[in-house]
Hints:
By secondary structure, this protein is mainly α. Helix 2 crosses helix 5. The longest helix is centred in the last third of the chain and has 19 residues. The chain is globular, with a radius of gyration of 15 Å.
Amino acid sequence: MEHVRFTGWLAAAQLRQQLEHAIALVVPSVRAAGGDQEGLPSVAAEALMCGVPVVASAEAGLDDAMLDGGGMVVPAGNAQALADALAHVLHTGVRAGMGQAARRVARERLRASVQSVRLEQRLLSVL
């Protein structure tokens, strides 16, 4: 595990620096005993914007459709599925393609202007 880093919270500049060198971002979220779970983790959005593939559990607030080739979703708590997904991402050609898809997903779905339009449409639909 010499190439794995558990950084904890990072300031924005530190996060950007880590993502510039990252092979993948892993978000192995699980649902808390009380039922709490993640929404869309902002670090996943930031990784996608940097072209870093995201490997997340199904409890991370992400799904395969949202990642659209920029990452993979595995069952929460399934260590073997997580390991298999990471092994898949480690292949250079796979990683490069996922990185390109990650940037596309961020550009097409996560930009503030895109999110603003989606929110406006949603709000107007309930009026």
